[in-house]
Amino acid sequence: MLSLKGIHHIAIIASDYEKSKRFYTEILGFKIDREVNREERKSFKLDLSLNGEYCIELFSFPEPPKRPSRPEATGLRHLAFKVVNVEEAIEQLVKNDVHPEPIRIDHLTGKKFTFFSDPDDLPIELYEI
């Protein structure tokens, strides 16, 4: 068995790099650790952290293929982030013209959660802790 220590990062390919960069930094609050223009690949790579922990690599590539379907396509289903108060988080999203689904209750834990989408329709969950 491997001796994994945790998740290092999540890689996301954006169709509109600047739009996704704004979404993840200005709306969700990720901090930019490093941005690299990879001219030979016509690509950018943006390293993002949350609360001091490296989390996301945001990429741009020329003409990336579309996601096949949502949310039950093979592969990554969604990203989930912890929040203290789902209602307050939703208020902040709505102020930024991001409109989550109605709040649901996890029938196993009794905790509140909701889903919304990033600029490329990647499903994102907020889960109340």
Outline:
This protein is α/β, with parallel strands linked by helices and 129 residues long. The chain is built from two helices and eight strands.
SSE map:
Blueprint: E1 10-14, H1 17-27, E2 31-38, E3 43-50, E4 53-60, E5 79-83, H2 86-95, E6 104-105, E7 112-117, E8 123-128
Parallel strand pairs: 1-4, 5-8
Antiparallel strand pairs: 2-3, 3-4, 6-7, 7-8
Would you give an account of this structure?
This protein is an alpha/beta fold. The protein has two domains: 1-63, 2,3-Dihydroxybiphenyl 1,2-Dioxygenase, domain 1; 77-129, 2,3-Dihydroxybiphenyl 1,2-Dioxygenase, domain 1 (Roll), CATH 3.10.180.10. It is 16% helix and 37% strand. It is globular.
What is the CATH top level name of the largest domain? Answer: Alpha Beta
CATH topology of the largest domain: 2,3-Dihydroxybiphenyl 1,2-Dioxygenase, domain 1
* Secondary structure: helix percent: 10-25%
| CATH 2nd-level architecture of the largest domain | Roll
Strand order in the largest sheet: 1-4-3-2
General shape? globular
Low-confidence stretches: none
Spatial separation of the terminal alpha carbons: 31 Å
Cα-based radius of gyration, to the nearest Å: 16 Å
> Structural class, from helix and strand content?
alpha/beta
Count of extended strands? 8
The DSSP helix count reads 2
Name of the CATH homologous superfamily of the largest domain: 2,3-Dihydroxybiphenyl 1,2-Dioxygenase, domain 1
| Sheet of most strands | 4 strands, mixed
Question: Mean pLDDT, nearest integer?
Answer: 90
N to C succession of SSEs:
EHEEEEHEEE
Number of domains: 2
Please state roughly what percent of the residues sit in beta strands, choosing from under 5%, 5-15%, 15-25%, 25-35%, 35-45% or over 45%: 35-45%
